[in-house]
TrEMBL record:
Domain of life: Bacteria
UniProt-annotated stretches for the region Disordered: 1-37
Keywords noted in UniProt: Hydrolase, Signal
Record organism: Streptomyces halobius
Name the UniProt record assigns to this protein: Metallophosphoesterase
Listed InterPro entries: Calcineurin-like_PHP, Metallo-depent_PP-like, Metallophosphoesterase_PAP, TAT_signal
PANTHER family named in the record: TARTRATE-RESISTANT ACID PHOSPHATASE TYPE 5 (PTHR10161)
Domain Calcineurin-like phosphoesterase, first and last residues per copy: 95-320
Membrane spanning residue stretches: none
Amino acid sequence: MCDDELIPPRADMTEEQWVRDHSETAAGGPPMRTTGRVPRFVNRRTLLGGAVAGAALAALPWGAEVPASAGAAPRPGAPDAFPFPQHPNGNGEFSVLITGDAGTGDEAQYAVAAAARDVCRAEQVGLAVGLGDNIYENGPESDDDSEFQDKFEKPNTGIDVPWLMVLGNHDCSGLIPGSGGDPSRGDREVAYAKTSRRWYMPSRYYSVPLPAADPLVEFFAIDSIPWSSYVAQVDPYYQWDGPYMREQRSWLDGALKASRARWKIVISHHPYLNNGKHGSAGSYDGFEVGHYTSGVHLKEMYEQVVCGRADLILSGHDHTLQVLEPTARTGGTRQVVCGASAKTGDGKAHFSHPAAWQNLSDNGFMVLKVAGARLTIAAYTVDVATRKATLAHRTRHTTPVAAGDRAGAHV
Ligand SMILES: [Fe+2]
């Protein structure tokens, strides 16, 4: 979660338990901030019988069913959607803007987007990535919530390319902002893709090979939320060992294995490794117990399915910029954190994973350049007052971690 938000008092509470516990321990203090809505699978009678329910919860709308999630089954995009690049740009590269945790609608988001727009023109960017927390604080209220305009379309006007979007914990808020306690909320972001020229999210997890017919690079977008939500999942479908997460894991394993792309890039909201305050998967926010809050099952998935098979894991969640070093632990996979496109970190390195470069205090974004012979990550910091970007770091890869059958085909 973010600096101005709540951290659960212990791991794996349900939202109902968390809210009740807060009420009992903070008597006389300010009321706990909630989203004003109840996840569809929370038992209403139980919730309203809790110590904190009160009149506000009693007044909530109820019974609006959300369609079952589509998983990896793609849904059609907007008829006038910006097309995916099918050829390298004039520099012989596929150039990709990387942003994360951008959806505030405030000045910093606009400043980062304006700075990125200039760099996108100069670098002939043909694709963009949004690494989750796309709509702060509570995620969209409907498939056509005006927040999609205010916190995505308007800031990013002029960056007229497809945006590969992944879900963040705020996009899946339940009763508590940013809890990740209602994954079904993410279906609204899948539905929005049907009407946006930019927003690409054909399903909750998906892959995009470029070029489609003879891929040089393939992006694998995953939904990390139910494996690392701040609260225990109530809906059996989304529990850590439930059908949704089993299906996603199986899909990713098969998709990575089947990919013929030279470069493979996993994009997800929650990082595997992280030097920022939220920490790494398996011990998020200091929790090392339970199935959810610590992210222990996301850690297992990264280590068993992704490490040594993907070249990069691109993540947000922490509002920092980090280009961590590939190590034996990662099987040669490099973790990149890019979650400072609207919010900023606390300036401190809380952990000491080897880093090629990191900035824990400034806003910024990155540009990924993909060519046959090299993968280049360029990190930019942004001065919000001037809306100008500064190139702060550049890292290059020349050897894919696992190029598969097509190794060297594009060199
Ligand atoms: Fe987040």
